[in-house]
Write a structure and sequence with these properties.
Number of strands: 9
Number of helices: 25
Strand content: 5-15%
Distance between the termini: 57 Å
Radius of gyration: 27 Å
Structural class: alpha/beta
Length: 484
């Protein structure tokens, strides 16, 4: 696209020149206000994209109608994943419609949001919209401008409230602001008088977003809170220690409790994230269920409170059971063999109709094949990896005189593939300790058998299985073989 635009850049059309100048002014204003980074040719490219779109509008509209579902799906995901980037894109769209009467088409919103994501790393941590409301003609604006300048980031918007303005008017102004921002963004509201706290509960009822509100705002307080928003602190922790620091009161009003599915793996957070991504791709439509990843060790210790917050846990799935009481765990191998699809369907029955359930089953059967899962979970080439692992596990079964079948065998394949990736990348490897050393002394034959059977794959990837991992592998095989 960029090459085509650069070639067509010689077009001296007055229309093109006018669009380019207007967009440059809009973008420069956004940069100064939002403290964002963009590539040097951003205004040039955006202007020419708009020009090309207008030139071939009929063809683009036909294409957009054909791809309507895909475009809406992309925008929905961008709104969820790139909250701040999409808000800035919407702001540019609004300014362009006001000055040029040119609405930004969906495909350009996708492109612009992704450009902001590419060049602004710190925006990725933020999903909170900040606003300051104060009595006076410019009090809130002065505080917001000062804090944004000191932080070097557009954290707070402002609503100035002349003394004659009623609380109802302010409530309507705030509703309008929140309607124009990403519906997936939470809101932190700083006010100068406690009487304004009453505006939040009514707004929460009208949306599922969470709203935190604090009174007696000052520049010092706003600066402290602003840094926390910029650094990605969650809304439940945004006011931690603030009451003692500033001697104020705060209220956090949570929206509707959301459901979540938790993904864990002994292979670490990257592996858990890949499982979540594969599951998300299997959903027939976007549903208001959060797919959350967490460190396996932390979950294994039973620490769910920090992760759940205001969310209800539907079930946990992953490559290793954290053994938590009263929590449903669905092993990844059960999803691969579709052994527990009825549980998954039951847990999601409130979000998908009968046709959606059928499509989910079809998608899972297509996406969660063994080779596809291994391809997702590891950075290694799945075909040779599975060939090596299958041969090694078959040899070990013969040496141990056991026969594993069905999901137990698939579970071991996955475990070994994840283990090999951890050894190759030197990440998340179990550390040696007295327990592991004692195991090595008591099970020398098992360790020798594993090294013999796995020699081809270990040589191929130039790795060794440390004794600390041997005990984990031994316990896993014993547990699975006993199930058979």
């Amino acid at each position: 696209i960029e090459d085509h635009i650069l070639v067509s850049g010689s077009d001296s059309s007055r229309t093109l020149q006018g669009i380019e100048v207007a967009i440059a002014n809009i973008v420069n204003a956004i940069i100064q206000r939002r403290f964002i980074t963009i590539p040097g040719n951003f205004s040039f490219l955006l202007a020419h994209l708009f020009y090309i779109y207008q030139e071939y509008k009929t063809k683009f509209d036909v294409w957009a109608d054909q791809k309507n579902d895909e475009l809406n799906g992309m925008l929905e995901k961008i709104q969820k994943l790139f909250v701040s980037e999409y808000m800035i894109t919407e702001e540019i769209d609004s300014l362009m419609q006001n000055s040029l009467e040119l609405p930004m088409p969906s495909i350009l919103k996708v492109i612009v949001s992704l450009i902001f994501y590419r060049y602004n790393g710190e925006l990725r941590k933020r999903n909170i919209y900040g606003v300051i409301i104060c009595h006076g003609y410019s009090t809130a604006s002065s505080i917001a401008n000062a804090v944004n300048s000191l932080i070097g980031s557009y954290v707070f918007d402002a609503i100035d409230m002349p003394v004659s303005t009623s609380v109802e008017d302010i409530k309507n102004m705030l509703k309008d602001r929140l309607l124009r921002i990403n519906r997936f963004a939470d809101a932190v509201i700083l006010v100068d008088m406690g009487s304004l706290e009453d505006i939040a509960p009514e707004i929460v009822k009208e949306s599922s977003r969470n709203i935190a509100i604090m009174n007696n705002v000052s520049t010092k307080m706003a600066l402290n809170i602003g840094y926390r928003i910029k650094n990605g602190v969650s809304i439940s922790d945004i006011f931690e220690n603030c009451e003692s620091d500033y001697q104020i009161e705060h209220t956090v009003i949570y929206g509707k409790e959301t459901d979540m599915i938790l993904f864990v793996s002994e292979g670490g957070l990257p592996t858990a994230q890949r499982m979540a991504d594969l599951f998300r791709d299997s959903l027939p439509e976007d549903i208001p269920v959060q797919l959350v990843i967490a460190p396996y060790d932390k979950i294994r210790n039973g620490d769910l409170s920090a992760i759940q917050e205001n969310r209800s846990l539907l079930f946990i799935t992953g490559t290793e059971d954290p053994h938590l009481e009263e929590v449903t765990f669905i092993p990844l191998e059960d999803i691969i063999t579709t052994g527990n699809l009825d549980i998954v369907a039951h847990k999601l029955s409130g979000y998908l109709d009968e046709n959606g359930m059928k499509e989910l089953g079809v998608n899972i059967r297509r996406n969660f094949t063994l080779i596809n899962v291994v391809n997702y979970l590891t950075i290694l080439n799945p075909k040779p990896l599975l060939d090596y692992v299958t041969a090694a596990v078959d040899g070990l079964q013969q040496k141990m005189n056991i026969e594993l079948q069905g999901k137990c065998l698939i579970g071991i394949y996955i475990h070994v593939c994840v283990l090999i990736e951890r050894l190759v990348t030197k990440s998340g490897v179990i550390k040696d300790d007295e327990v592991n050393q004692k195991f090595a002394q008591e099970h020398p034959d098992f360790i020798q058998d594993v090294k013999a059977c796995f020699k081809p794959v270990l040589d191929h990837y130039s790795i060794e299985i440390p004794d600390a991992e041997m005990m984990y592998f031994h316990n896993y095989i014993n547990e699975e073989s006993q199930k058979n």
